[in-house]
Design brief:
The chain is mainly α and about 425 residues long. It contains 14 helices and eight strands. The strands form four sheets. The protein has a two-stranded antiparallel ribbon with strand order 1-4. Strands 2-3 form a two-stranded antiparallel sheet.
Amino acid sequence: MTVYEILWLFLNGAFSGWVLETALAAARRRRFVNRGLVNGPFCVMYGIVLVLLSFFCRELTGFWLFCGCAIVSTVAEWIAGHLLEQLYHEKWWDYSGIRWNLDGYICLPASLVWGILGVAAIRWGNSLWLRVFHLIPKAFGKAAVWILLCGILVDAAATMVILSGKTKAAKGWERIDFWFAQVSWRLGVKVYGLVNRRIGNAYPRLAVKEEARDKTVFAFGCSFYKVAWLFFIGAFLGDITETVFCRLTAGVWMSRSSVVWGPFSIVWGLGVAAATVLLYRYRQRSDRFLFLMGTALGGAYEYLCSAFTEMVFGTVFWDYSQIPFNLGGRINLLYCFFWGIAAVVWFKGIYPAVSSRIERIPKKAGTVLTWIMILFMSANVAVSCMALVRGDERTRGIEAVSGWQKIMDERFDDERLMRIYPNAIKVVTE
């Protein structure tokens, strides 16, 4: 699919989700309720999930397609619920009254519905929406996509700023009143009130008890700086672990790094950071619970990473086709169990010790070091992506024309990329 087709599916999925949610809410409350997080007629989460399903479930059929759609949608709903809680310290929906739920964010009946809707969208909805898109004049269709997308982005940004500001937003208007005309001030206050009233009306949010924070301690609790340090530590330790594992199982020292500079595995780093954010509140739960959650989330995460790298870079960095109980060679049951074991070991053994040591770092020094590492890793990931993209272009016989292509050919030729990514397998497309 082209970029415009992907964006078109996102817009249609977001709009269709808004229609569905609004209709269900209206049926329950006997009046119109806008269920979108943004003010426009879009439920952004539905659009994101539809795009994810379109890419990551395209290889599945029949019962496995239903399972894939249900799992991806449920994981997305669970992650979205926790992220909203992290941002606003409130719950935006609650399934606590339904059996087989997890903390009110997901439940089995809803997951089954997501599976049915996902199958319908993948088998019939996508093809219908794409046919409509191709009937629209090309220039007009592209312009419409960008206008709608920019509208959603502006709408979402404004909504997030207003909601995150809460009472501070009104005071902020007063403090910067001299920068604006009186009309602008009144309009801003009206928008602020409208958004808060509408969101509160559409989503009966439940207050969530916050963890007491010690502002004198660097990276206290599950803060941004703590998660950033866990990402770097996880990326480094993950690369070392995989390198040693290859030595023990295959008898060779092999680079397992995800980036061109340094021993860092981005998959492990993101996995450690994401698992900590999502499972932090469950860290005191039983080993069985953490194992099951780690198995499910780890398997889904590894599958998404495999599909994403193949889609973007035309490269598969691991292949489990020869291992029993695998799914498309992207994941297998044994390694999913490893993710579950890792979740238990992490929260019950490693995390408390690592967390306490991170919090001992002096606050000013820790803040400066964090941003230095973020800048370094951002540049590292950007250069690595360009090197991989250029490597894929060379495989397809595309000549270097622009400056960055020539630099990549000079600094990261096929021989060097093979040393950095010895396990990478190019995917041949017709």
